[in-house]
Design brief:
Layout: E1 16-23, E2 29-30, H1 37-42, H2 47-53, H3 57-66, E3 69-77, E4 85-89, E5 93-98, H4 99-103, H5 118-141, E6 145-147, H6 156-159, H7 168-184, H8 187-211, E7 226-229, H9 238-241, E8 247-250, H10 252-259, E9 263-265, E10 271-273, H11 279-284, H12 302-312
Antiparallel strand pairs: 1-2, 1-3, 3-4, 4-5, 5-6, 7-8, 9-10
Length: 318
């Protein structure tokens, strides 16, 4: 792969970032005037939040209004030096693509979308579908792809500390190096890396679709809910990690207690509570006498619940 043209920019601070997102009902809308790549990729309104985490109230509201996002594009514009590379980000991968290909796609104003006539909404639904197909073609055409890194692990390689004078170009340089390394890896190795990192975002999305609310309390505010693995992530293989039946959608208190083995659930949905939790703590965790059971369990949940009961519940006693 050729060296990124952006490496030629050493001290030029006149660049601007453009970021757009293609969503289910709105085509290629600008999402934010980001000042640097750290924000555009991992910021509160960045690609990671839109495609992977989406736990904030602002992101949740955007998803409710515009539908599920499919792609985020990030490129540098308004430069004296021409740069022909851009980042196109899906839920699980980052691709290096042509900036011109992304910049040519017409952006859409979204002001007042809730109050648009149905005919306008139907038009933009069709347009969004068409643009999604175009972006899919651009994405798949790229031979330079790497897995989408999580911000608290591999993602640090992109953003470094950025507390000092780290140049934004260094982030894309790191991406370039990773893409070159990916080129030299075997297809089997690349597939293994992808499968190991897709994980949490897709899993959370599946649990929201399956449960739609906390499996115990009935809380329906998705941004407050956690995607809890029944058989812990570390103990699961890649298939189990993405199995919707290996998960419960829980409020934060229940999620913490479940993860620590302070509570568990029998195959009939009944909650078992460790003696280590006091009556006062039950209240603070949101565990009430009339809301302690899970409804909606299926036979596919059984093996995971049995694992949790045997190996996680009150693990300090075993």
């Amino acid at each position: 792969m050729k060296k990124l043209v952006i490496d030629r920019i050493v001290d030029n601070e006149k660049y601007q970032l453009q970021s757009c997102v293609c969503s289910e009902r709105i085509s290629w809308r600008p999402v934010y005037n980001f000042s640097n790549l750290q924000q555009a990729i991992f910021g509160n309104d960045g690609a990671y939040s839109l495609l992977y985490d989406y736990s904030g109230l602002r992101i949740e509201a955007q998803r409710d209004e515009y539908g599920e996002p499919f792609y985020c594009g990030i490129w540098i514009k308004d430069l004296e030096v021409d740069i022909d590379e851009a980042l196109l980000i899906s839920e699980d991968r980052i691709a290096l693509v042509s900036r011109d290909d992304l910049a040519r796609i017409e952006k859409v104003s979204v002001d007042g979308y809730k109050h648009w006539p149905l005919a306008d909404k139907a038009f933009h639904q069709q347009t969004a579908d068409e643009i999604r197909l175009k972006l899919s073609a651009i994405f798949e055409k790229s031979s330079k792809k790497i897995p989408f890194p999580e911000p608290d692990s591999e993602g640090k390689r992109f953003i470094k500390s950025l507390k000092g004078t780290v140049e934004q170009r260094d982030i894309i340089t790191e991406l370039s190096n990773d893409l070159n390394q990916a080129d030299s890896a075997s297809e089997t190795e690349k597939e293994a890396v992808l499968k190991s990192r897709v994980g949490q975002g897709r899993f959370r999305k599946q649990l929201i679709q399956y449960w739609n609310k906390c499996a115990v309390t009935g809380c329906e505010t998705h941004s407050l809910l956690r995607a809890s693995h029944i058989k812990p992530w570390a103990d699961s293989d890649n298939k189990e990690r993405l199995d919707v039946h290996n998960g419960l959608l829980l409020t934060p208190g229940l999620d913490t207690a479940f993860d620590l083995g302070l509570i568990t659930f029998q195959v009939n949905g009944e909650m078992l509570i460790s003696d280590k939790i006091s009556e006062d703590d039950l209240y603070y965790l949101g565990i009430f006498p009339n809301k302690r059971n899970v409804e909606g369990l299926k036979a596919e949940h059984e093996k995971y619940l049995l694992y949790h009961y045997e190996y996680v519940f009150e693990r300090w006693l075993k």
